[in-house]
Write a structure and sequence with these properties.
The protein is an alpha+beta fold. The chain has helices at about 15-20, 25-30, 70-80, 135-140, 145-160, 165-175; strands at about 1-15, 45-50, 60, 80-90, 105, 110-115, 180-190, 195, 205, 210-215, 225, 230-235, 240-245, 270.
Amino acid sequence: MCRHVAYVGGEEPLGRLLVEPPHGLYRQSWAPRHQRHGTVNADGFGVGWYAGGDPVPARYRRAGPIWADLSFADLARVVRTRALLAAVRDATLSGADAEAAAAPFAAGRWLFSHNGAVPGWPGSLAPLAGTLTAADVLSLEARNDSAFVWALVLARLRAGDDAGRALADTVAEVAGAAPAARLNLLLTDGDTITATAWGDTLWYLAGPGRGTVVASEPYDDDPAWREVADRTLLTASRTEVQLTPLKDPGTGVPGGTPGPADDATPAPTEEHWT
């Protein structure tokens, strides 16, 4: 499992979002408060951020624990950004991919992270390899479930799907192949954040003057944090958050609730501010 966080808003130092909060991602690497699977996220970390007017993000990733990297402490103190995606990793299986297996994964303007696991990997998802081109498969950054899920999402983005559909359809496809999969996905292009709550915790903090933060768990005790219900798609900008129930492929209805497959999906809930 992992912990991850994304932010879009006014320009801030990396450290104010990741290190300084009393329960920020830095501390979540050894003392998460809401993690349901695993306890220590010391198998790698990464942060991707958008600088100036460049639409293509920079990344800094390492194979070891975030607390052991003094260079990151310096970067977090001085580097400022209007948007970021960062993660700390608890590897489900051992592997030799080192920092290549650490989120965020990236392509063009996109940054992506997967908090969860796909039981039976790689066999459980082998049938889905045929939906990718040979180039997609050979271009995987790492040989793990998260990198493969990212390849499925990226293929949809490149085919013209918007971020919400790309995540929702990928979750449905993977959950159909591996019903016990945990698929909290997080995606940003530097202007918007798209995420799924599917098997683990997801929260957001948003409002006037603070931008939008979407995270595995709150980084402080601000009462404005809101928890996202399981089986939900979140789409957000600096001024809006929308929550849409996701259909469980095992039941065909939102939230995995037993019932007829043709039940109507509830309308999205929206929060706006200026």
